[in-house]
Amino acid sequence: IRLPVFSSAHAHFICKMAAVQGGLVDAVEEKTIKSEPVADATANNSANDARAPSSSPGSGVSPGVNKPAAGAAEDQQTLLAVLQFLRKNNLSESVEILRREAGLPEDSLDQKGGDSTGTGLGGPEADGRTDAGSLLSRVTVSSSAPSKAVAEDQPDVNVVLSAYSQQGDPALYEVYYSGLKKFIETVLDCHRAELSQVFYPLFVHMYLELVYNNHENKAKAFFEKFSGDQECYYQDDLRVLCSLTKKEHMRGNETLLDFRTSKFVLRISRDSYQLLKRHLQERQNNQIWNIIQEHLYIDIFDGMPRSKGQIDAMSGSLAGEAKREANKAKVYYGLLKEPEIELPLDDEDEEAENEEGKPKKKKPKKDNMGSKSKKQDPNAPSQTRIPLPELKDSDKLDKIMNMKEATKRIRLGPDNLPSICFYSFLNAYQGLTAVDLTDDSSLIAGGFADSTVRVWSVTPKKLRKVKSAADLNMIDKESDDVLERIMDEKTASESKILYGHSGPVYGISFSPDRNYLLSSSEDGTIRLWSLQTFTCLVGYKGHNYPVWDTQFSPHGYYFVSGGHDRVARLWATDHYQPLRMFSGHLADITCTRFHPNSNYVVTGSSDRTIRLWDVLNGNCVRIFTGHKGPIHALAFSPNGKFLASGATDGRVLLWDIGHGLMVGELKGHTDTIYSLRFSRDSEILASGSMDNTVRLWDATKAFDLETDDFTAATGHIHLQDNSQELLLGSYMTKSTPVIHLHFTRRNLLLAAGGYNP
Amino acid sequence: KRRKVKFPKDHEVMIQILKDMGITEYEPRVVNQMLEFTYRYVTTIIEDAKIYASHAKKSNVDADDVKLAIQCRMDQSFTSPPPRDFLLDVARQKNQMPLPLIKPYSGPRLPPDRYCLTAPNYRLKSVQKKVTPSTNRISVPRLSVGGVSSRPATPTLGAPSVQTVTKVTAPVSLTNQRFTVQIPPASQTSTTKPTTASTPAVSNVLINPSLIGSKNILITTSMVSQGDSLKRKHEDDDDYDNL
């Protein structure tokens, strides 16, 4: 073992600390504190054991040196450990000084510190971050200073690992856990379900502690004994844990490291909590109480304990449930006011609602999509909350077309289901990884595992690109049809292939004005392609890891991307760096979507949570838990109030954004859901899945509910088991997983997938 | 289903590993890919460990060497994303800045040209045969394709935007011509380095690739701003008289 040689200044410092420590010991009544868990010597051990050369044993030593309260025997061992350390470093003078001052006999040098006193409880709820950059500092505030001095130059993961202190004797973990299990089994039925929530996080944290402190065999035994008791929806996590038996295995796994440092949130009613607390504060159960205080955040509410079904509906994520305060911020989920556009007179008049701000009714039809009354919708953000690009003439023409199409839209309902047109990508050999359609359904683009992006024209109109500069010079610029003349007829084709990425393309998005196409890939870049020239314009580099999804904002100009680095970024097409970074997820972000008013971004992640972020300031305003697998599909309802999400567990969950609650669950799919889409007027929700089916659900009925105050206050939900009634139809494809759904402006459903025989 | 074929032991071990990790459906080639990766990874680690052991003057490779080798490799090839506190910090800083206002009527909203991929990624070289002494004119006697040299070619046209094609010459038929296309080092700027003092005008010359085959080359130029803006007329006609 190579130990860095410390300067004598360090050594003297350590000795002084040890001397101070010695003084403290006498003053403190040790009996009551004997049960305090011990820390540093094990850290010492771990420091002295096979450690990477870059680790700093000093940081392991110093916490042990500066403990506030200790039993005499344990403290003695700490001193011995320090002595031994100094001896190893040939700091003989310091050794002498320490031995003299601490009054240690000569022959005790050979003993290594066993279970020395621990710290760890200074601030059980406190955030474990120190200035030195070490993520996990379980040491008290007073001892963080020396550890900082020593570890200053090593703000890496090893400091995190080495500064960790252990709660309780590792050999007794099984005993603690079994004791808790027995207690919870004897508790009243109504409390049992709630208290059983504690099992999983406790199990994982205790197991990880054993692994961190190199008690590999004990960890394995612990795992074997208790892993079978956990809920079935945690099986995937447990499998990952099973393969993690050494501390080195944890190093590269950011998700697990984040899990360690974040507190698992549990919602327990006050009565159940009192029960638990009373039991655990008894003398012999103190260890578990400390562990619980350290790793769990218990959100107490007043009221009836929740039933197992209710708990199961909300749990499943890697960080527990969401704290109630996390979902209390105001969210402006309304739609932006549509700008007024003068329309030519039209005979087919639906009820024309007036634009806000225009007192007199004009004959031309106004936009009747989205904008409600003359007054400002209190739930809608103001037009200037975030800067949005102004409407160009072409955009206005688009809107007019949109309105015209809207008049011809079919009203869907349970007795009027949409026709479904399925686009199968043949010969893709399972390489089709992303699909998108333009809003007017004229273009379809596919991203492939061979790193190409292909664009097809859905209509008979071929794809044309702009002529070369040479040809452009020759055309008559003053002619009326100059916009057609600049297009090159000679190279018109049904499809165009875009080359540029160096990895599979996982996300595709058309811009609303059909000028640009975005693609995000495993190579960590997002590329902006021009659909006029079919060339690549910009490569946005920021994620250095695969980018799993990207989407343009409904108003254009902004786009959001999310990837393996657990961060979602908001970009604008004219900035080469992101404008906002949405950080908070524990695992990869697999799906990113804009809200229809472009003020919010929702991200679904592999940590089984969905977060809603505010574009204006980057804050996370909602956390939705309940899925039992990574989320792959998200869809906002066109009115902006509701969110639907689909994951690998085959369930579609429905959320009320305003209240931050789950309002429905649609069971039926048997495999991962990859696509979700609401029809244009929110009547039908279509879901497409890996089980080769498209299912249609009755959205009006699913969201037709009143949220009462109690539910809003406590977050208790009562889900009805009405998936069967809400299912309007289920359509099988011929061995083609459905990865994209799109409702045309007239409410025809288009679906796409790669044929996979 | 029972497998009739007996696989080599390593193969069986890999199948068992996949099963333990919960992967039940996979193509048969996956096992081979995993085995290849494992073999490569293990040999790299052991070779590194041997180097460390010999550096420490040990005769045998022991566990510490292997541990060190693994660690160094981890930092090199298997990097993991940044830790959460760092990300939160960066995010906080970034999110404090207000969203920039959007300039109206600004055409395609793209980042500055340096960050775009819209510049041409090649340059044409001219093989100078004769130089017209006339004022403000640089002639291009011949353009040869195939070699890479350092002499850039034709004069440019003054125009504000760098990356877009600005002016197009009349189509010129150039038969039996060989053209040099020079590819500058990978930089997004379209400025080129002047190589000889006698060539004050430097430019990039775009060759329309679709027309090369037909030996009908259109020379289109894009402006290169180089401090002193060059406003020269494009005079190709008199250079190709002899064709």
From TrEMBL, chain A:
Domain TFIID subunit TAF5 NTD2, chain residue ranges per copy: 168-296
GO cellular component: transcription factor TFIID complex
Skewed-composition ranges (Acidic residues): 343-354
Coiled coil: none
Biased composition regions of type Basic and acidic residues, renumbered to the chain: 102-113, 366-377
Chain intervals for the UniProt region annotation (Disordered): 36-72, 102-131, 343-398
Keywords associated with the record: Nucleus, Repeat, Transcription, Transcription regulation, WD repeat
Amino acid composition bias (Gly residues), ranges on this chain: 115-125
Pfam families in the cross-refs: TFIID_NTD2, WD40
GO molecular function: RNA polymerase II general transcription initiation factor activity
WD repeat copies, ranges: 425-466, 498-533, 540-581, 582-623, 624-657, 666-707
Keyword Nucleus: yes
Biased composition (Low complexity): 39-65
Protein name as annotated: Transcription initiation factor TFIID subunit 5
Species, as recorded: Gouania willdenowi (Blunt-snouted clingfish)
Automatic annotation (TrEMBL), chain B:
Compartments, record wording: Nucleus
InterPro entries registered for this protein in UniProt: Histone-fold (IPR009072), TFIID-31 (IPR003162), TFIID_subunit_9 (IPR051431)
The species this protein was found in: Gouania willdenowi
Domain of life: Eukaryota
GO molecular function: protein heterodimerization activity; RNA polymerase II general transcription initiation factor activity; transcription coactivator activity
Name of the coding gene: taf9
Entry coiled-coil feature ranges: none
Family: Belongs to the TAF9 family.
Gene Ontology CC: one annotated term: SAGA complex
Keywords: Nucleus, Transcription, Transcription regulation
Protein's name according to its UniProt entry: Transcription initiation factor TFIID subunit 9-like
An example Gene Ontology biological process: RNA polymerase II preinitiation complex assembly
